[in-house]
Amino acid sequence: MLFPHDTKVDALAKAPLFAALSRQELGELAKATEDLEVEEGKTLTREGDLGREFFVIVDGDVSVTQDGNEIRRLGPGDFFGEIALIYDNARRTATVTAASPLRFFVLTRQSFRSLLEHQPEIEEKVMAALEERLAAG
To answer: Does residue 36 have a pLDDT over 90?
Structure first.
């Protein structure tokens, strides 16, 4: 494990999808994640591909591109890919590439779904947050 449990819990708490979760529930979510490190230049997601994981950046930054054009940079504390946790056939809307050596953790849809099966109250809170985001546009 690269990152302390509290680091993951704090980072997950910043994601709107998980904002309603208790510290204990965030802890359960954190246990389901996997810590990773990649070199600069590594592609994490490719525009148009099926999404299967949610990423949280701990150290380093990434370049987010659409149609080959950089639209933003993300760094420590930022996250992307949360829609892939919810929708089975969600296509990536952008390509994300490590712009520096990167340390991050991922939550796969499979791990997320497994957690929800055992803790339906987490699913209720996440779905409510998703509905709010979709209603807000």
So the answer is: yes
Long-range interactions of 2-10: CB distance < 8 A, separation 24+: 2/35, 2/36, 2/37, 2/58, 2/103, 2/105, 3/35, 3/58, 3/103, 3/105, 5/30, 5/31, 7/58, 8/33, 8/56, 8/105
* 100 in Cβ contact with 129 (< 8 Å): no
Distances in Å between the alpha carbon of 22 and those of 26, 42, 106, 110, 126?
A: 6, 34, 20, 22, 12
Collapsing DSSP to helix, strand or coil, 92 comes out as coil
Neighbour tally for 40: CB within 10 Å: 13
Residue 89, pLDDT score:
86
Closest CA to 92 of 129, 67, 125, 57: 67
Determine the Cα–Cα distance for residues 27 and 121; give it in Å rounded to an integer.
14
In this structure, the number of other CB atoms found within 10 A of the CB of residue 72 comes to 13
Residue 16 in this model has a pLDDT that exceeds 90: no
Q: Whole domain around residue 68: which residue ranges? A: 5-136
Structural domain tally of the chain?
A: 1
